[in-house]
Specification:
Layout: E1 10-12, E2 17-19, H1 20-28, H2 39-50, H3 58-79, H4 88-92, H5 98-123, H6 150-161, H7 179-192, E3 196-198, H8 199-202, H9 209-224, E4 228-232, E5 239-243
Antiparallel strand pairs: 1-2, 3-5, 4-5
Length: about 240
């Protein structure tokens, strides 16, 4: 791995005490468990170490950031469930020096950041024009109100303010019979038949098919509430209804 200067930075952790470069090599070689290393603690220690002007080195900082990215990736891989054990290719990727590849990526990001900053600075000198032409140029463009008269405004208002067209609902079946009404009718019919009746008896007074359907749904509601018991001797046979109260 690149970044020889990183060897001067040392860490003190419960699992390891010594140069951070040696710790990184031991983790990559799977001689130290990456889950035992707190990356946040190491980062705080490095920031305190880098505050000293004598310790500040761009190459060292770049190597440290790349190595922390590798450690985080390894830790996430350890914490996430996997069906197979990680081998060296999974840990390091196709490149033999993943840290060096990460440093190249960081350099590319720095170049892009510099280019974006340059473009923002160049564009800062441009302002949009938020005023119209002066009065001396007013005769050069047509007046949009020259062809507007009272009759035209009246026609436009009539189109915009006229009531919406009537929606034809003749094809929709109106709701004339509710579940609540059907439940009351079923209770009354069962009482008339002595607290037990067949479903055919309960719908004998229905004039339309929709009433039969709604009354059947009401019967299911009563059964769900435990107010009636249903019995059917055979498939498609007569349904017997007993009132439970």
């Amino acid at each position: 791995m690149s970044g020889e200067g990183a060897g001067t930075f040392a860490v003190e952790l419960p699992a390891f005490t010594g140069p951070f470069r040696l710790l990184a090599e031991l983790i990559v070689e799977q001689k130290v468990d990456v889950c035992d290393v707190q990356v946040a603690t190491v980062t705080d220690a490095f920031l305190a170490y880098a505050k000293d002007a004598d310790h500040w080195d761009l190459e060292e900082v770049t190597w440290f950031l790349a190595m922390c990215a590798v450690l985080l990736e390894l830790k996430v891989g350890r914490l996430m469930p996997r069906h197979t054990e990680s081998d060296e290719d999974d840990l390091l990727g196709p490149s033999p020096d993943l840290a060096y590849a990460r440093s190249i990526e960081l350099a590319a990001y720095r170049k892009v950041a510099v280019e974006l900053a340059r473009r923002l600075e160049d564009e800062a000198g441009y302002f949009t024009r938020d005023v119209g032409p002066g009065p001396e140029f007013s005769h050069l463009y047509p007046d949009p109100m020259t062809k507007v008269d009272a009759e035209g405004l009246a026609r436009l208002a009539a189109q915009l303010l006229r009531p919406p067209p009537t929606l034809d609902l003749t094809h929709v079946t109106p709701i004339r019979y509710t579940i609540a009404e059907a439940m009351s009718a079923v209770e009354q019919r069962i009482e008339d038949f002595g607290r037990a009746a067949s479903f055919r008896d309960l719908v004998a007074d229905c004039d339309e098919r929709i009433q039969v359907v709604v009354r059947f749904l009401a019967l299911l509601e009563l059964y769900r509430d435990g107010r009636v018991e249903l019995h059917q001797g055979e498939t498609f046979g007569e349904i017997r209804v007993e009132w439970q109260g």
